[in-house]
Write a structure and sequence with these properties.
The chain is α/β, with parallel strands linked by helices and 326 residues long. It has helices at 2-28, 44-61, 76-83, 97-100, 103-106, 142-151, 166-178, 190-199, 209-217, 265-279, 282-291, 300-321; strands spanning 34-38, 65-69, 91-96, 118-134, 157-160, 183-186, 204-208, 221-226, 252-260, 294-298. The chain folds into two domains: 7-126 and 253-321, Bordetella uptake gene, domain 1 (D-Maltodextrin-Binding Protein, domain 2), CATH 3.40.190.150; 128-226, D-Maltodextrin-Binding Protein, domain 2 (3-Layer(aba) Sandwich), CATH 3.40.190.10.
Length: 326
Amino acid sequence: MRTKSNLLATVLFVLVLVGISIGSRAQDYPTRPVTIIVPTAAGGGVDFTGRLIAAELQSALGKPFVVENKGGASGNIGTLQAARAAPDGYTLFLGMSGFHVTNPALFSDLRWDPVRDFSGIAMIMRAPHIVIVNKQFPANSLSELIAYARAHPGKLNYASPGVGTQNQIAADLLAQLTNIQLTPVFYRGTGPALNDVLAGTVSLFINTTQSLIGPLQGDRIRGLAILSPTRHPLLPDLPTNSEAGVPGLEIETWYALYAPRGTPRDVIDLLARAIAKISEGDDFKARVGMSGATISYMGPDELDGFTQTQVAHWTHIIRKLGITAQ
């Protein structure tokens, strides 16, 4: 009997020590550099966001926050590495909607799950998509583009950075909602796709404000609609998709910080509070705004619920469109 009592006392003592250790770790966090895994190569909107939030967190919390780019396999390499990392707060993950909530429907053998393997920390920013055409294309509005496609079935192509990307999903959804035919021309990345639109090799492209704000403001391409419920402050004359006559075509890229599931809640809350404060800073607002994105803070619980809703939403649309990445 005494042996069992001693064993129970030992177990309780160990649990208390573990609790004290975790609480102390959360209270003192961070005590060493923190890695933020970005599931893309350097450059582009995901990398920009990761480096921007890393610099701000480093300034706010006093320890290095270092971006580690792990691109490849449509974001799956970096995401899997983050999902399997120790849940101690020293490996974080920058999720992007184009991978995080669409890949579960695109890949049948996915080895990570956005809900099971990750805890939300905070939404950081959003960037809606824009429908653009080459300056020589004979359409000045989305309705004129739809009319052209109907008058020339099978003749209208669009640039896509790859199968299963949000760009392709947006174009296929546009085609389905308006009963037109659009032929994809695939490229190895957004840069080459945009270059061919500028050159007139392809006519149509749908991509984020972050990639298109410069060419639009420089009058190098023609914007037809922003796929958002509201107009963009830097492009006030560009109608929304609903104003342009295609409700249901809202497409945006969003960026959010996650931690491996099991990361102490105190650490998650500390990071979330830091990002909430960062989001209110004038310099941060200016840098995000200049990139073409908008700040969109969301805390841990709200982000977790949002992630689940987004997975269900995009799974339904991707399966309806019949898109697979395999």
